[in-house]
Amino acid sequence: MSDDVSLTGPAFPPEEFRQRRRNLLAAMAERELPVLVVTAPEDIYYLTGYNNQGHFAFTALVVAADGEPVLVARAMEAPTAAAQVPDCAFDGYGDDADPAAVLSSTIKQAGGPQEAVGYQGHSMTFPIAVWNRVRDSVPAQAWIDCTDLLVGLRAVHSDRELACIEAAARLSDLGMQAALDAVGAGVPEAEVAAAGLHAMIRSGSDYPGFVPLVRTMDRVDQEHLAWSTRRLRDTDTVFLELSAAVARYHAPLTRTVAVAGPPRSPAAAEIALVGHAAIRAAIRPGRTAEDIYRAWRDTVDADLGAPNDRHHCGYLIGIGFPPSWVGGNAVLGLRPGNTTVLRPGMTFYIQSWVIKQQVGDHVVCDTVLVTEDGCELLTTTSRGEAP
């Protein structure tokens, strides 16, 4: 991919969004689905380019086999919708109105309410109160959970999407290096996080879907903590995880660093790095997600001489809105039981965690691209391998 990508302005021309919607309509036709209600912010963005932080108020995109898509959102979002998605209709609701009533009316006007209506059952942004009122108001013969439909369509990235992910990876590396440079005895965790975030945003990053995570390794298993005001000590080892975002596309990475001196757990670091290499070696088109997990787990368990009970070794990465950089809670993970086949153009956040073992704790993670014959590392900050 080209190293030259604009970090400002629209990342995609209108035709790319129209093609994505045509692909969706074709997939809906295969399922004999006349209407689909899309509520995940990542999927609404993927189909239209609608990009703001207003999803805390109920927002939906109604896609029908006949007619233009309709964006249902808070009425005050109309100017944003007009500027960003002029080829979609807008149906706004006031703060004193019931969004369920507006959405129900929009679905009925879209046609086919007596037939099947698709929805995203795993969406975090379809409140149960709204869902219940819509389901009671629309006389569909069946409501069909179509969460997997858009996850499948978004899994393989176009060249333009990959350019955004690669640009995000470069900014993530800048942020990680700034965070690593800020680590020192007496420095608050918050200052380390601020250094990473500042470097990314100053260099062109959007706001990320997830803030930087900075914590000492004695709390490494307390996942998804952001940071504290605790000052680092020279005996501490620090967990650093962050991602930049370009046009809402993310490329996260994680590093483990000692505040002073060499790694506190060199054996754990070596095993984690060997596991990281095993994931990269296993990734290639045609393999399944569980194949990759098995390759990592077998390698790490053999080196440890004991089971390393980590539930996955990575997941698909791309579009993300707060509170996540993975695209909602329908995560396509490299985990046991996932038979999804890897294809060129997918990007994964690969993770090699070795924690709470006798050898100590170490974590190393990166964003990679599935290529025609293997994978390519997109984040490149030093992982501390021997030269």
Automatic annotation (TrEMBL):
Coiled coil: none
Protein name, per record: Aminopeptidase P family protein
Signal peptide: none
Lineage: Bacteria, Bacillati, Actinomycetota, Actinomycetes, Micrococcales
Species of the source: Myceligenerans salitolerans
Alphabetical list of SUPFAM superfamilies matching this protein: Creatinase/aminopeptidase, Creatinase/prolidase N-terminal domain
MF terms in GO: aminopeptidase activity
Gene3D superfamilies: Creatinase/methionine aminopeptidase superfamily, Creatinase/prolidase N-terminal domain
Boundaries of every Creatinase N-terminal domain copy: 20-156
Sequence ranges assigned to domain Peptidase M24 in this UniProt record: 164-372
Keywords: Aminopeptidase, Hydrolase, Protease
